Amino acid sequence: MSTPAPRPSLACGYSAQEDRLVLTVSDNEASRSIHFTRRLTSKLVNALAHILERSNEVVGKVPVGLRDDVILLEHMQALGRASKAQKQVAPQPDANRPAASAPARNRMAHLAVKVTIAPSPPGFHLILFGRSGQLLQARMNRAELHRFLELFRGHAETAGWHLVLESTWLQSEQSDVVIN
């Protein structure tokens, strides 16, 4: 029985000089920086939100007025599980150090130009493309896709990009939950 290859680590940051979000993908041997424009980031965030909405089995069964609440609760649960797992498994990265400044051997930078996302039971298959071809391929479950979405949404918000979010459950003011 062979052991699966270790998953590369992902870190995201903002490059003010480039006005790009920078996804740094690192493994033991090399590191790649994948730069995202505002336009592609906006499309990616909205596409991920729509895919999560459409693929949630419960959303279609509840009244229309509750659908945003159902997907928001799933989103919050996925983010909550991530923070608990990260605290137990690895130390948190330095939030003040941009991802692009992390030391690594053989650093290569690419501009993302296209993203494909497809359902692939039991999760999703995501591929990032640059001008020269495929840059990153990943399989993610629902929780990982929620975290990937939040990674980009959060960094775009921190960068002051003010993305137009098509899904109301993703908007900042919607992410506060009040239980009476």
How are the secondary structure elements laid out?
Elements: E1 9-15, E2 20-26, E3 31-36, H1 38-55, H2 67-89, E4 107-120, E5 123-130, E6 133-140, H3 142-158
Parallel strand pairs: 3-4
Antiparallel strand pairs: 1-2, 2-3, 4-5, 5-6
Key terms for this structure?
6-stranded mixed sheet; alpha+beta; 180 residues
Describe what this molecule looks like in 3D.
- This protein is α+β, with helices and mostly antiparallel strands and 180 residues long.
- Helices cover 32% and strands 28% of the residues.
- The chain has helices spanning 38-55, 67-89, 142-158, and strands spanning 9-15, 20-26, 31-36, 107-120, 123-130, 133-140.
- A 6-stranded mixed β-sheet has the order 1-2-3-4-5-6.
- Strand 1 (9-15) and strand 2 form a beta hairpin.
- Helix 1 packs antiparallel against helix 3 (142-158).
Largest sheet: 6 strands, mixed
Helices and strands, in N-to-C order?
EEEHHEEEH
Strand order of the largest sheet: 1-2-3-4-5-6
Low-confidence stretches: 87-105
Query: Helix/strand-derived class?
Result: alpha+beta
How many helices? The count is 3
Helix percentage: 25-40%
Query: C-alpha Rg, in Å?
Result: 17 Å
Shape: globular
